[in-house]
Amino acid sequence: MKLRALLGIAVIGAVGMVAPGVAGASNAPTEYFTGIQTSLSGAQTVTAVGPLSATGTDVDTSKTTDQFDFPDGSLTIRHHAIATTKKTDGPACSFVFLQTGTYVITGGTGAYAQASGSGTFRVHGIVADCKGQPPTEIAITIEAHGPLTLG
Question: Is 23 a domain residue?
Answer without folding.
Answer: no
